[in-house]
């Protein structure tokens, strides 16, 4: 199976994504690294440890990474969506972690796991891209050891943090640009447009809650998050953005992707943090000034929605 490292800022949907990988026998979860994002680094790290403890996976190494973006301060956290503790105020539904993160830091853990792996690994960044930008900056020689970077982020038709920008990209646009545009690594981008379509119904969550202790604890995290998403979606459900990206990391091809030219807006204006994707047919694309430059990403554009939800449930 795929060898996977998750880089995360839990986050309710991050918790679902970590549990998905931690409990799957189709994937070897080599490690989890944490980053600031939905809440502070201290809180996201503690939450990652809690989710792994819940899943009986205290064997998976965890290391904490960046506590802020590369260049500008983070504009805002997402505690209005994920609660003050990052888990909808319900972190007590998960076990207290019986351990601390490893001593070396996220970039060191990523580097040592990639170097030690017998085959190229998949990285699934499901928070701001700061740790991954630092990894590629410090260890360019490790790019050959990376099979794919499957990112939850971006929006083709607009954002959620601002009109144009999705939260993970908006939280550190310079880091996102480094990973998606400046570095020559295979990237898959799973944008908001698709993750919102993959949202799950309240009834799906209730059924998940009845499957056993892991399902019950995940379900227990959701009441306030569900409430917040009801307003976004206009129906009784919630987005599990990060779990959609991790599903693709575990099962390549579960999402349909198309390769498009991409750039990230790092200006200070209202487009800051937007993913600029050229979806014109190849013959109609321009070159030169004012056009999206040469970098490309495989962008997830569609999936079998019910098949995907069944995969997450299993
Ligand atoms: C992304 O932002 C975070 O709040 C979620 O965990 C997800 O990674 C969605 O825009
Ligand atoms: Ca996240």
TrEMBL record:
SUPFAM superfamilies in alphabetical order: Nucleoside hydrolase (SSF53590)
InterPro entries cross-referenced by the UniProt entry: Inosine/uridine_hydrolase_dom (IPR001910), IUNH (IPR023186), Ribo_hydro-like (IPR036452)
Keyword list, A-Z: Glycosidase, Hydrolase
Domain of life: Bacteria
Molecular-function GO term, any one: hydrolase activity
Region (Disordered): 66-103
Keyword Metal-binding: no
Inosine/uridine-preferring nucleoside hydrolase domain mapped to chain residues: 4-306
One Pfam family here: IU_nuc_hydro
PANTHER family recorded: INOSINE-URIDINE PREFERRING NUCLEOSIDE HYDROLASE, URIDINE NUCLEOSIDASE
Designated name of the protein: Nucleoside hydrolase
Organism, scientific name: Amycolatopsis pigmentata
């Amino acid at each position: 199976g795929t060898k996977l490292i998750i880089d995360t800022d839990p986050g309710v949907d991050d918790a679902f994504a970590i549990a998905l990988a931690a409990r799957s026998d189709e994937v070897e979860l080599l490690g989890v690294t944490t980053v600031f994002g939905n809440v502070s680094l201290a809180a996201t790290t503690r939450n990652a440890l809690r989710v792994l403890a819940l899943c009986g996976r205290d064997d998976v190494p965890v290391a904490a990474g960046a506590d802020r973006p590369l260049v500008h301060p983070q504009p805002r956290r997402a505690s209005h969506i994920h609660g003050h503790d990052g888990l909808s105020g319900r972190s007590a539904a998960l076990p207290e972690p019986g351990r601390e993160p490893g001593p070396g830091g996220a970039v060191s853990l990523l580097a040592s796991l990639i170097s030690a792996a017998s085959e190229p690994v998949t990285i699934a960044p499901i928070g701001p891209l700061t740790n991954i930008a630092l990894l590629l900056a410090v260890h360019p020689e490790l790019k050959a050891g990376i099979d794919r970077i499957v990112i939850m982020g971006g929006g083709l038709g607009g954002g959620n943090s601002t009109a144009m920008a999705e939260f993970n990209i908006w939280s550190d646009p310079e880091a996102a640009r480094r990973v998606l545009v400046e570095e020559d690594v295979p990237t898959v981008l799973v944008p908001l447009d698709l993750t919102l379509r993959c949202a799950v119904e309240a009834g799906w969550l209730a059924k998940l809650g009845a499957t056993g202790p892991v399902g019950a604890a995940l379900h227990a995290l959701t009441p306030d998050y569900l409430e917040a998403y009801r307003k976004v979606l206009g129906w009784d459900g919630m987005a599990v953005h990060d779990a959609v990206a991790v599903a693709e990391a575990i099962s390549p091809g579960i999402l349909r992707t198309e390769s498009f030219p991409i750039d990230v807006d790092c200006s200070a204006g209202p487009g800051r943090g937007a993913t600029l994707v050229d979806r014109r047919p190849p013959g109609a694309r321009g070159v030169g000034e004012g056009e999206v430059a040469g970098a490309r990403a495989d962008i997830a554009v569609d999936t079998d929605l019910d098949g995907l939800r069944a995969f997450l449930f299993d």
